[in-house]
Hints:
Elements: H1 3-20, E1 24-27, E2 39-40, E3 47-51, E4 54-63, E5 66-75, E6 95-97, E7 103-105, E8 109-113, E9 123-126, E10 134-142, H2 145-153, E11 176-184, E12 190-200, E13 210-211, E14 216-219, E15 231-238, E16 241-242, E17 245-246, E18 251-261, H3 265-288
Antiparallel strand pairs: 1-18, 2-5, 3-4, 4-5, 4-9, 5-8, 6-7, 8-18, 9-15, 10-14, 10-18, 11-12, 11-15, 12-13, 16-17
Helix pairs in contact: 1-3
Amino acid sequence: MHTYYKIGLAALVLAGLTQSGAFAAFLNYSDLTLSPESYNNGSYSSGYFESNDFFYSYAGGDSGGYQWWAGMAYSNITDNTTPGYANQFSAITGGGLDSDAQTVAGETYVIAYQDTYQGINPSVDLNPESGSDIQIDGIYLTNTTYAYLAIKDGNDGSEYPYVKKFGGESGDDKDFFYVTITGYDKDYNQTGTYDFYLADYRFDDNDLDYVIDAWTYVDFKEAGFTMGTTSFTLEFVTSDVGDYGANTPFYAALGGMNVSVIPEPSAYAALFGALSLGFVLMRRRALKK
């Protein structure tokens, strides 16, 4: 192998390590088991479920005979046509992602719900006792059926809908619905923040208006996040706001995440050593000529 090639290869490996870690993998939710067409939201209690060394927090309770929940749940419901709150645990895709990040009907996915009344935002955290150096490189998101049909058709499943069909009657209203993703490292220092639009009707050309209906990857590096993201929170914003707050259902679905291992400092030292040796050999050859 030529010295020049060795140097180029070492530089390429170093670049790959510094930007995405020494190891990369896609994590879906196949480790979470459910009966067909069911979900688990913690049975209206507070706690978390764990998937691939990550904690997904949820909260719930009973307030005056009314059961409530917020945060994270997991589901494999395939019904992506029934509008309304009764179908709140359904993703518009009708299924989650398999190990190749392909949509499969009935595959498990995660539902995220922000409860502004209780002040609870969905969050995902690396298990601090896992001893892992895993970082989150990006996540797969889409709309829930509940939010999608409310936005696209103005249908929230009730006889007198309180949600607005985005764009209005003319289609010209500049409506939007997005989720702010905020990342943190293991010391809970912020690593970045990004607004992902689940629906965007702000275009002058109405043909460009859209509502997300497929699993869509949000790359944290491209979104400006720094290395070392081990947790994130979700917070929703909508243009459809009434006297009592947001009308758009504050839901989204997660299909999985890409992760990598942050290289140890020794890995950098070894690679820099290889680079240095390569340059020395190249210089010696140049002097002999």
